[in-house]
């Protein structure tokens, strides 16, 4: 049973419209969502994702459950929204680097930012990877990285139009990185992020250079 089923007749869309009509500004809405994001992360570390209910999150964020449901359908929806900030940061970092796939030595630039971020927040990510949040988190990261790597290997192409060779390269790179990061986090991120990033880039770029020259 979903959390919204405990609220007979609750209309999430209508509730959101009422809140906006009542003077809920974009700034206030952003603050509410940000507070819920931060509360979810904090409680996940403290208590574990699987142990949390919407009521727990709303109470800790000092908002009502009706306000929660005006923004999110459930805690998984909240998690996906919170991880959207990571995706936005990755895209911004990649755009700022100006990597277009023509310079092999600069490719896979996502790994430096991503690995440093994971090292800084390794306690949170280890907590998220336990239980039901793990598959959601890893799937979100995988899709974000696939989009970024695809834009380097096949700039200007949509996912459906990428060649088989390029898509295999995308899946190879992202799959390798996901395996490395889960292994590293499981170990407590003991090794320096610079060493992890350098090792990954060396092996991945070596594989790509051979493939793209073939």
Automatic annotation (TrEMBL):
The keyword Nucleotide-binding does not apply. GO terms for molecular function: DNA binding. Residues 30-90 form the HTH tetR-type domain. Residues 53-72 bind DNA. InterPro entries: Homeodomain-like_sf, HTH-type_Tx_Regulator, HTH_TetR, TetR_C_Firmicutes. Keywords: DNA-binding. Pfam families: TetR_C_8 (PF14278), TetR_N (PF00440). Gene3D superfamilies: Tetracycline Repressor, domain 2. This is TetR/AcrR family transcriptional regulator. It comes from Devosia ureilytica. The lineage of its organism: Bacteria, Pseudomonadati, Pseudomonadota, Alphaproteobacteria, Hyphomicrobiales.
């Amino acid at each position: 049973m979903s959390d919204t089923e405990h609220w007979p007749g609750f209309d999430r869309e209508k509730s959101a419209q009422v809140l906006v009509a009542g003077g809920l500004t974009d700034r206030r809405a952003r603050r509410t969502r940000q507070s819920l994001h931060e509360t979810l992360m904090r409680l996940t570390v403290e208590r574990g994702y699987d142990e949390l209910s919407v009521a727990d999150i709303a109470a800790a964020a000092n908002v009502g459950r009706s306000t929660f449901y005006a923004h999110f359908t459930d805690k998984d929806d909240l998690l996906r929204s919170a991880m959207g900030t990571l995706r936005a940061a990755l895209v911004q970092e990649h755009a700022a680097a100006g990597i277009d796939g023509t310079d092999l030595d600069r490719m896979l630039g996502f790994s430096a930012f991503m690995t440093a971020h994971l090292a800084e927040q390794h306690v949170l990510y280890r907590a998220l990877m336990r239980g039901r949040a793990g598959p959601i988190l890893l799937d979100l990261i995988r899709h974000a990285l696939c989009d970024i790597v695809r834009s380097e290997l096949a700039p200007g192409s949509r996912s459906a139009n990428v060649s088989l060779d390029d898509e295999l390269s995308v899946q190879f790179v992202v799959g390798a990185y996901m395996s490395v990061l889960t292994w590293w986090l499981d170990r407590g991120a003991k090794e320096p992020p610079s060493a992890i990033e350098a090792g990954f880039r060396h092996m991945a770029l070596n594989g790509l250079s051979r493939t793209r020259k073939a």
